Amino acid sequence: MPYTYPRCKKCGRPAFYRVRYARLWLCPKHFVEFFERRVKRAIDNYKLVRGVKRVLVAVSGGKDSVAALYVLNKFKEIYGYELMGVTIDLGIPEYSEKSIRIARSLYERFGVDYYIVKLSDYGFTLGDVQVWRRVKRIRRPICSFCGIVKRYLLNKTALEVGADVVATGHNLDDLVKFVATDYYNGRIEELVKLGLKTPASNGFAGRIRPLGLVSGKEILYYVNTLGLPYVHMKCPYSPRQTNIQDRILEKINDLELEYPGFKIGFVKSFLHHLKPIMAKSYSVEKKGIYRCSICGMPTSNSDRVCGFCKLRMRVSETISA
Ligand code: SF4
Ligand code: ZN
Ligand code: ZN
Known about the structure:
By secondary structure, this protein is α/β, with parallel strands linked by helices. It contains eleven helices and ten strands. One zinc ion binds next to helix 11.
């Protein structure tokens, strides 16, 4: 018997993508529609832009943030928010230049106002952080310092430009990893903050993750189908060895193959059942919030020096020695 190629369930044209958990084969056009409908449903169901006038989307140039920029730009008339973009120049050799080139080209193509925030304007780069780690034999991974830098600069930019929320390209796989590893490590304080939306509080801008219920693979197909450019290069500082988060995701991906829809079920079950119970008994507000005595930004450090300023001082001491 000749092999019959799968056909799109919507139009009967040749299909190229199978949504396993929905048992759907789709052609490129109907896959794009399916993807955008899913993102819109997440925005509606989780009230991500309710009362939001200005969204600042963080674009690193990777596929996820490129998809977030594209889809948020497409939806801005429907929801009536103003969209702005921000890209952080971390000063990672070659990688940062590529990221900025792509982000800038997309902002200009879509007519989105944007900011390029340079870490070097604060006296150091991520390359310097790497040198400092080596000189001081610091075992803590560079990505954890990079996280401090990105959170600080995104929050600062959002407050400066009057954005109600920062939108990031975190996807379903990221949420699965975060929920599972924070649970494994007993980090309740982090767990209660996870979700598609973190409201603004204590001087921190709100966060939204509109792609939180679509997988990395779906995002890859989406940006490729639309022909959007993105950075293919891996960050030269990304860990070479697989860490526990990646191992957990590998195992959960095995479960997804056996039980299509497992990952969405896992995250939704956390958001709808476990998180409300945890949030009742653990209030993030209980933790004191201070002003950093150096930069004036909010911090939970009781010594009144924020993590970013501490890092900046330590790295600067080493590189200027
Ligand atoms: Fe930063 Fe790590 Fe991502 Fe590189 S891989 S951009 S160091 S978080
Ligand atoms: Zn079709
Ligand atoms: Zn500070």
